[in-house]
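R.M. (postdoc): so does anyone remember the format we settled on? I'll just put the structure tokens first.
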């Protein structure tokens, strides 16, 4: 995630969008909105190696974690429409995949083929995730990633709805 502790930008870029001025009214999210507003394909890059990893102390309990995620989602509505669309593609494709797989698994005729397709997808996911998770020092999550992905499908919409209902922002 792009958050204040792992984002870097020049003073010129900061000044070009008048800093955080357009985000003063927000209690959080001003850092990623600044970068969102000022970045383009010419002035932005992603550094992905083990020397660039920033570690954060995780929240101690579910309530604190939930509140943090709700805060993150409150700024999501301020992104450009196509960015919201692009960010929605992955969760939408997950739901579509698992719902389709569930429906097809209920048809006894295709059971083995669908079970193989789901297994291949999960195996490929773990193979693809291995190197990035290793770089981010989370290699232990590779085996849990299919389960966490399914949890994500259910929790994410609830957090988004909670962020929209939250009057504290």
């Amino acid at each position: 995630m792009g958050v204040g502790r792992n984002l870097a930008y020049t003073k010129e870029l900061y000044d070009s969008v008048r800093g955080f001025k357009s985000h003063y009214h927000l209690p959080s999210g001003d850092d990623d909105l600044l970068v969102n507003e000022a970045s383009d394909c010419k002035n932005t890059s992603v550094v992905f190696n083990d020397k660039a990893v920033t570690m954060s102390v995780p929240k101690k309990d579910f309530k604190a974690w939930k509140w943090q995620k709700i805060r993150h989602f409150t700024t999501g509505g301020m992104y450009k429409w196509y960015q919201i669309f692009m960010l929605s593609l992955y969760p939408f494709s997950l739901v579509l995949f698992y719902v389709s797989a569930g429906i097809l698994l209920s048809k006894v005729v295709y059971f083995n083929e669908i079970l193989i397709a789901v297994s291949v997808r999960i195996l490929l996911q773990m193979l693809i995730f291995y190197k990035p998770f290793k770089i981010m020092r989370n290699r232990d999550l590779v085996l849990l990633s299919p389960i966490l992905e399914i949890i994500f499908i259910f929790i994410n919409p609830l957090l988004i709805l909670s962020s929209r209902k939250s009057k504290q922002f």
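R.M.: ...and that's the designed sequence above, right after the tokens. Also worth knowing: The radius of gyration is 19 Å. Residues 59 and 74 are 19 Å apart (CA to CA).
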